[in-house]
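As described in the Methods, two query proteins were run sequentially through the folding procedure within a single session, without resetting any intermediate state between them. The first query and its resulting structure tokens are shown here.
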Amino acid sequence: MEELIETSEYILKEERIKDPDSDLTAYNGLFESTTGMCSIYEFMYSFRDKEDDPFPDLLSDNAIRALETIKKMKERISSGSCVGGSNVGINQSSSIELQKAAAEIIKFMTSKETQKEYILSSNVASGIMGLYDEDDVCDVLDCKLVKSIQFVNRPTHVNTDYDSYSALFRDHVFEYLYGNKTASQVLHEINDYTKIYKITLNTENTSLDLWFISLFGLMLILSSGFLEFGDLTKMKCQFKWIMVSFGITLNLIPILYKMIVKFPEQNKYSLWVHHNKYKFLCIFILIEFFIMGISFIKPYDIVLMNRLDENNLNFMKCIVNGGFGKFIQVLFILNKVIIFLIFLLLIFIEWNIKETQYDIRALTGAIYLDILDIIFLLIKQSLNYDNYIVEFLLNEIIIIIFVLSNYSLIYGYRVVLYFIIKDNEEDILKGSINKLNDNNSKKFASNPDMETNSGDISKKGSIINISKKIINYHYMKNAQSNSTIMTESAIKSNKFESTTNSENKV
């Protein structure tokens, strides 16, 4: 493509030296017409890694580079070809004799002999590739060139209403070529119109290691209740608090990882987290180990709660050991507060992303319940109880609520969601396509307060600019990251019946 740009620039330069008023256009993709679909698709097809590769995925780096090159050409040198064609059919309501006669005509028109005659007499190319192995045909046409051409079909298989889809496709591309959106952003928006989202247990796109870590954290929290049984010891007190704290971290950090990776705009931090998954997890685990380690310097104490009245019984209780023990609790609280604040910020930022909207809302409920549960645990620990059964039940109830709420809101709700939306998949897609007809005249309209363009937002670091950027992220409906969020892995996007692998070549 660089060679095409350089050659075109050279031709334009030389033409303008000869004729300063020359209106020669080196490249005209006719983007605003239906031919623009051919130009865009041809460019994307040209950006495959290998000659035999299928049409690149819309979310791939290849497609992004293709759009970026189109914009570069528009700015520096601003034709393409795509297979369209006509349909020939036989009226099934006609008589058998007429149908047979029509079939004979079609056979004649498409026969090798007729096609060859048209090539030799009119220099018209044929779709029968075997003809370009014959010497007399090659005397008329450049057979080597014709056989090297790789055609690409219009994506008529993507939607039954191809005209609307084509207009929608071009409208979104224009928002990149002539507007403020990025190539990645518009391709994500286009890709949404080719998908049907549904709930599935398929693990094809799931980070199983992260699921196991998160669920193991919940099991660790739930298992801490077993340390309440039997004789109370200092080690039981210590490990109960460790299991709860470590379990919370293991449960939430994998989800935090996926939320950072799914940040609405790619940046060096989300990319680092994406490429260093285990390092990211280890940072939080090492912090937990550090807090655990220093907590053993002065572990919990066991005190006897003497009840010298007939209505209560004596029992043993864990208490925090002096000022150092309280300092450890402050570290624990501070660690969890930071994690929850990061969660709440990311939830606000990613609130309107369409592909994860159900997950974000469910996660919000889980985070708020987690905060309340931890507050209740701290309050319970600071209170004095006269009855060991009450203390035991309160502790177990808080832990069980924590585990059940997290499991239900982060994982279990998908079962309910599946039955809610499974009958509406096609209607959702049709509604998205039909919105184009209402908004077709607004393709270049934009709200400056809601458009996100990293180049337009000052990077001075002021509070006003940071707040504006966060608000802009909040209103974005598509993430530009190429990564897959954990919650998205439960929403598997199924392509339509036709695949791009076999239908992009003629």
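Immediately afterward, the second query was submitted; its sequence and tokens are:
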Amino acid sequence: VYSVVFSPDGCILVLDLKNKIIKIWNTAINNKLYILISYFNLIYLIAFSLDGCILVSDLKNKIIKL
């Protein structure tokens, strides 16, 4: 695991895994919501916006995805 991030309200947990996968969980009901895959680049960093509406990922090739 490279990064673990909670949404500002604590209801969403995001795991940045070493195998180019981001897993998004609803912590209130312990349910996996999404699996996001980066096919081309490793993910270095994940973060939420202050309002929790946007999830940002920073990729190895210096591209930021929203």
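The chain has one domain: 3-65. We note this only descriptively and draw no conclusion about the first query from it.
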